């Protein structure tokens, strides 16, 4: 995933540095980007259904959260329950579950390069949704940069049409995953100002895992009959890309600004493509390479100029 799980859309461009780190925050940022880039490799290595991998990734992450007792924050008086807030929380969890379902399944059909690059289209959907839902306006330069990103994604899809219909189907799933994640972020935008972040993560992870559990039951997928390799991958998906990746991004927001984190995760597709070449022998086509460069360039420029965007 190309954006921290708990970063609110209205996050200020600059955050306050609290305390000091024993190592450079940028070294930790690289570790986070590298960890998230590994997720696509783990998924490719597993023979389990994508919905099973997503469910266990969330469940094992929940287990890792439990020692921190995030539920204790329910009595902290920092937020109050309401019907609207509860509905947004449920929607946020459902959209996160759909994101895992669509994106992880996309890697069963298309290449790491196409899937990861198309996933970076999240800002396009967020820009459109924020305009209609929150009346947030984006500068002309911001719109132009995202159009460049869209042109790059079209080139990727065009190349995959010539490759196979299955690859194009995988591309569509990746775009659906990006859209679902964008809806997840927009649904949680207001909640992130009211609910402690770890408690919010616990709730949405549980809801998303329940959605995937129902999907697995409906499709009669076995919950236990998997190899030791698959079980190891389930644990690694929770520990490395989720905890050492996305949650590390959230923690680093206390030391570097949100724009820096957003710009850094643009490197996820680059590292993922390199890892796919070395570990999976996947070599990007010229259309994937050129389209990918355009997409990441457009998204990168958007994040660079985003603080200058006007909000109404």
Automatic annotation (TrEMBL):
<feature type="transmembrane region" description="Helical">
    <location>
        <begin position="260"/>
        <end position="280"/>
    </location>
</feature>
<dbReference type="InterPro" id="IPR000620">
    <property type="entry name" value="EamA_dom"/>
</dbReference>
<feature type="transmembrane region" description="Helical">
    <location>
        <begin position="167"/>
        <end position="187"/>
    </location>
</feature>
<feature type="domain" description="EamA">
    <location>
        <begin position="169"/>
        <end position="301"/>
    </location>
</feature>
<keyword id="KW-0812">Transmembrane</keyword>
<feature type="transmembrane region" description="Helical">
    <location>
        <begin position="48"/>
        <end position="66"/>
    </location>
</feature>
<protein>
    <submittedName>
        <fullName>DMT family transporter</fullName>
    </submittedName>
</protein>
<dbReference type="Pfam" id="PF00892">
    <property type="entry name" value="EamA"/>
</dbReference>
<dbReference type="InterPro" id="IPR037185">
    <property type="entry name" value="EmrE-like"/>
</dbReference>
<feature type="transmembrane region" description="Helical">
    <location>
        <begin position="231"/>
        <end position="253"/>
    </location>
</feature>
<feature type="transmembrane region" description="Helical">
    <location>
        <begin position="286"/>
        <end position="305"/>
    </location>
</feature>
<feature type="transmembrane region" description="Helical">
    <location>
        <begin position="87"/>
        <end position="104"/>
    </location>
</feature>
<keyword id="KW-1133">Transmembrane helix</keyword>
<keyword id="KW-0472">Membrane</keyword>
<feature type="transmembrane region" description="Helical">
    <location>
        <begin position="143"/>
        <end position="161"/>
    </location>
</feature>
<comment type="similarity">
    <text>Belongs to the EamA transporter family.</text>
</comment>
<feature type="transmembrane region" description="Helical">
    <location>
        <begin position="116"/>
        <end position="134"/>
    </location>
</feature>
<dbReference type="InterPro" id="IPR050638">
    <property type="entry name" value="AA-Vitamin_Transporters"/>
</dbReference>
<feature type="transmembrane region" description="Helical">
    <location>
        <begin position="21"/>
        <end position="42"/>
    </location>
</feature>
<feature type="domain" description="EamA">
    <location>
        <begin position="26"/>
        <end position="157"/>
    </location>
</feature>
<feature type="transmembrane region" description="Helical">
    <location>
        <begin position="199"/>
        <end position="219"/>
    </location>
</feature>
């Amino acid at each position: 995933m190309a954006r921290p799980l708990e970063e609110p859309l209205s996050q200020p461009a600059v955050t306050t540095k609290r305390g000091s780190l024993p190592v450079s925050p940028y070294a930790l940022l690289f570790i986070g980007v590298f960890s998230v880039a590994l997720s696509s490799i783990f998924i490719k290595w597993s023979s389990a259904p994508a919905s099973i991998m997503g469910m266990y990734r969330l469940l094992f992450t929940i287990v890792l959260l439990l020692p921190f007792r995030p539920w204790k924050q329910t009595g902290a008086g920092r937020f109050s329950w309401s019907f609207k807030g509860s509905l947004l929380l449920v929607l946020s969890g459902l959209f996160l579950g759909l994101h895992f379902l669509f994106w992880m399944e996309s890697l069963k059909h298309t290449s790491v390069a196409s899937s990861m690059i198309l996933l970076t289209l999240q800002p396009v959907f967020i820009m459109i949704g924020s305009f209609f839902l929150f009346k947030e306006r984006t500068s002309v330069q911001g719109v132009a940069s995202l159009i460049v990103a869209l042109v790059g994604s079209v080139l990727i899809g065009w190349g995959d049409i010539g490759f196979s219909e299955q690859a194009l189907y995988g591309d569509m799933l990746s775009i659906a995953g990006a859209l679902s994640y964008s809806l997840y972020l927009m649904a949680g935008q207001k909640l992130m100002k009211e609910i402690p972040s770890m408690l919010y993560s616990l709730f949405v992870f549980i809801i998303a895992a329940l959605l995937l559990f129902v999907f697995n039951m409906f499709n009669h997928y076995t919950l236990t009959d998997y190899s030791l390799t698959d079980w190891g991958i389930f644990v690694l998906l929770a520990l490395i890309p989720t905890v050492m990746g996305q949650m590390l991004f959230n923690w680093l927001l206390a030391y570097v600004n949100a724009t820096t984190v957003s710009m850094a995760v643009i490197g996820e597709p680059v590292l993922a493509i390199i890892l796919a070449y070395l570990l999976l022998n996947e070599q990007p086509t010229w259309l994937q390479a050129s389209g990918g460069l355009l997409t990441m360039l457009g998204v990168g420029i958007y994040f660079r100029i985003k603080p200058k965007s006007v909000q109404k």
